[in-house]
Design brief:
Elements (H helix, E strand, L loop, with lengths): L4 E7 L4 E6 H20 L6 E11 L7 E7 L4 E3 L7 H10 L11 H11 L12 E9 L3 E4 L11 H4 L1 H10 L1
Antiparallel strand pairs: 1-2, 3-4, 3-6, 4-5, 6-7
């Protein structure tokens, strides 16, 4: 038996004994360790994650000036730009928080201005920017829904939120 053989393994398909070298043993260990480290470092993203949509107006610089929108989660953040690849996410955000605009990508800038007015975000750390935010759920980086549809959803009329039904119940009792 050669000196670099670690053990002899039985190949059940052929029924033969196959010598396994230390180099093969170490290579198997490295592959297994790499697989485990990948699972630890880059875990699978859950299908639905809590997040908030943050819009703000940057007045300080010329290059980065204007309205910005981010979807922020614990693990990542998405900057929503004018790229057509973000249109499904823009439309789902606009559908979840109706502010009097149709959920079309062309009205997203005006929608951001209205969100900052309707759901203002408290100024933290002396940040003077106009800002607004809503809390919700992000499904697969493509769809947004509100966490509490009745609480922070401006623009929803009382008839849609169920207030009319509760008033009718009170009058019948």
């Amino acid at each position: 038996m050669p000196p670099d053989v670690a053990f002899i393994e039985v190949d059940y398909a052929s029924g033969c004994r196959v010598p396994v070298t230390w180099q093969e043993v170490m290579e198997r260990r490295r592959k297994r360790q790499a697989k485990l480290l990948k699972m630890i470092r880059y875990p699978k993203e859950p299908p639905v994650v809590p997040c908030y949509v943050w819009v703000f107006h940057n007045r300080r610089t010329f290059i980065y000036g204007g309205w910005w929108c981010y979807v922020i989660t614990r693990r990542f953040e998405i900057e929503i730009t004018d790229s057509p690849s973000y249109d499904p996410l823009k439309q789902s955000i606009m559908r979840a928080v109706p502010l009097g605009f149709l959920p079309v990508p062309g009205a997203f800038k005006e929608w951001m201005v209205e969100l900052a007015r309707s759901c203002p975000r408290g100024k933290t750390g002396g940040d003077p920017r106009e800002a607004g935010s809503v809390v919700g759920w992000l499904e697969g980086r493509r769809s947004f829904t509100l966490a509490h549809p009745g609480k922070r959803s401006p623009g929803i009329r009382p008839e849609e939120s169920g207030a009319k039904q509760t008033e009718e119940l009170k009058t019948h009792v």
